[in-house]
Design a protein that fits this description.
The protein is built from 13 helices and 6 strands. The protein is α/β, with parallel strands linked by helices. Helix 8 packs across helix 9. It starts with 23 loop residues before the first helix and ends with a helix.
Length: 311
């Protein structure tokens, strides 16, 4: 099917309604509905207490004690505030009251939910978050993917089809977030993204997805290759002289002196690799696989041919 082509006084929070939402007029303006029981909301509430007390993040960190980085991550919603830390902050700020009591209740609920989660799932989320941040500053991105397309190369139709079946919800927000990641191609200078894509990803696409979704994804790939000269997409055909396709991985390379890093994930785990020897091994493996892949020109021809076959 796929042939090779030719100091602290008491402070209170904004008023909370009986439905559990911060009163909109007091925090975000009329017409804005903000979920109250979230990690991010607790972080914002803690920031409001800190700012009302006239403290910087550094001063707050010294009081707890913890690092300023931890305070920042809590306030922006990247890290969950523990019940212990929240209780200590309320005590130090003398911020006792109904609002802070409610914060503690919500923090306890979040902590209970967090303890029920798989530790590996949480680590996977943290490692992926780091990858997502670091890739925006990389000078070169090397990737090997077997039966799936890299997230940076997803069309909107493909994303919506993919996300609609995983039960995680928040469809529009997730599509927007992934599209935002892909804006790195518009950077000046843009990173060179060198992707080795297994032919299995193309077979799975046309056999498992609606024709319209498959066509949209193939068209998106063809358009991106034509639009972005720093995107280098090569297909590893089934008849390539590679006995076993390696597990998917990504390597981020930097020219500013920071160490390169590798990333791998499975359905239950993920890890960032920073040891020079490990990252060097991934780079060597990428080059070994690249020697067996189709050229960029033949890969583009293959994508174009398969797109033409779809209705």
């Amino acid at each position: 099917m796929f042939a090779r082509p030719g100091g602290a006084r008491r402070h209170s929070l904004p008023r909370v309604t009986t439905l559990g939402f911060v009163h909109q007029s007091e925090r975000y303006g009329a017409g804005t509905k903000v979920g109250f029981d979230t990690v991010g909301q607790l972080g914002r509430d803690l920031r409001a207490l800190r700012e009302a007390a006239g403290l910087t993040q550094i001063q707050m960190a010294a009081m707890l004690p913890c690092s300023q980085s931890k305070i920042n991550k809590i306030e922006v919603g990247e890290t969950r505030v523990t019940v212990k830390d929240l209780h200590r902050a309320i005590e130090l700020l003398d911020a006792h009251g109904a609002d802070t009591d409610e914060m503690l209740v919500r923090a306890k609920d979040l902590e209970a939910n967090h303890q029920r989660r798989s530790r590996l799932a949480d680590e996977k989320s943290n490692h992926f978050r780091r990858l997502r941040g670091e890739e925006q500053e990389a000078d070169e991105i090397l990737a090997v993917t077997g039966d799936r397309f890299p997230g940076l190369l997803h069309s909107e139709d493909y994303m919506r089809d993919l996300f609609s079946t995983d039960g995680a919800g928040k469809l529009d927000a997730r599509v927007a977030a992934r599209a935002e990641r892909a804006r790195l191609y518009d950077r000046t200078p843009a990173p060179h993204h060198r992707v080795l894509l297994g032919e299995g990803a193309l077979v799975r696409l046309v056999r498992s997805k609606p024709a319209a979704v498959a066509a949209a994804q193939l068209r998106h790939l063809v358009d991106m290759v034509g639009r972005y000269p720093t995107l280098h997409l090569r297909v590893l055909a089934f008849d390539a002289e590679v006995p076993v396709l390696p597990n998917d991985f990504t390597v981020l390379c930097f020219r500013d002196g920071r160490p390169n890093l590798g990333y791998q994930e499975t359905p239950v785990d993920a890890r960032i690799m920073t040891k020079k020897a490990d990252v060097a091994a991934l780079i060597r493996e990428w080059h070994e696989v690249a020697e067996k892949a189709l050229s960029e020109e033949d890969s583009l021809a293959l994508l174009t041919e398969e797109l033409a076959r779809l209705p």
